Amino acid sequence: MDYVQLALYLLFGTVILILIAMHVALRRKTRLSLKELFIPKVRVADFSHEAASVIIHPLFWIVSTGIVSLFAVALILGSYNEMIALDWLLFAFSLVLFFTFLDPIALWFAEGRYKEPLRFVAGGMSYGALCALFAFLANSLLNSLFMQFVEPAIAAVMIISLAPVIEEILKMYGVIIISVHRVFKGTIDGIITGFAVGAGFALMENIFYIVTKVPAYSLDLIAFRAIYNTIAHGAFTAIGGAVLGKIRMTFPKPNILLLFIPIFTAILIHISFNILAIVDTIAVYSFIINYYIFSPLMTLALMLIILYLIIYAKDKIKLRKRKN
Questions:
Q1: Which long-range contacts (CB under 8 A, 24 or more apart) does 268-274 make?
Q2: Cβ atoms 237, 169 nearer than 8 A
Q3: Where are the chain's structural domains?
Q4: How far is residue 281 CA from its own chain's centroid?
Q5: Cβ partners under 8 Å of residue 217, min gap 6
Q6: For 211-231, how does the pLDDT look when each residue is reduced to its tens digit (9 = 90+)?
Q7: What is the value of pTM for the model shown?
Q8: What DSSP state is assigned to residue 180?
């Protein structure tokens, strides 16, 4: 199998996907120009609004892309040995990159005519990728700290338990920042922005696993991570984003306690998924089942929930318009 050729096809498909999304964004009824898409106008506002404007600004995308690219290169060089297959790395990176863009853009298209700005998707993905770096550093620091004071097995359990909490707090914080923007309108915006943040996070996590843990030419493992891990991480934060969007619609200026509800929701779903993933792993290695079952089924269930939430939110928008 020519992995380099497959990688080029995937990269070409990713570029085409981005161009199609840009074309649709430019043809919206608001007549968004190409200049406004990449150089948006920044209005003077309070600090929270400015923070949201920073995340959705193209300069932030460029800076974050540079940072995560440097991290990926450093990870490859730090793990490099003669056994690493470069053609496999190129293919694996291209595969996870393709699904990283495919999933949130497909969800963005699923909104129909109630599309939020494409900048929310790009900003969310950029923020999510940076979140993964902070989560990696935080988890590594905690792991080193725990290993000094407790047994390795207990330390591993503590890290596994704390990782979803750290990751979802970091991811949902970005969604909360973006939700302050004046264009952010409610549940659908929360879903799409949250999914974009989760997909960006999954990209960096997948890259880390490809370089350090996934054996070369393991098509089943890399396909599993590219598809299910991207959807799962996107879904955790998307459902939390839906809750946040509903809170923003009901309470224009929610207090801190209310903002903990979407964060707790995302954490709870993430922990549930991790438990099922552990059950799957134990069952496979114990030869009880041949394939992972429970975590893929939960991933499918999460996607159905997200699609239902989008349809429900769109019906509410139509009903509100009829009343007005």
A1: 269/235, 269/236, 269/239, 269/240, 269/302, 270/164, 270/167, 270/168, 270/236, 271/161, 271/164, 272/298, 273/232, 273/236, 273/298, 273/299, 273/302, 274/160, 274/163, 274/164
A2: no
A3: 3-323
A4: 23
A5: 85, 88
A6: 888 777 788 888 888 998 999
A7: 0.90
A8: T
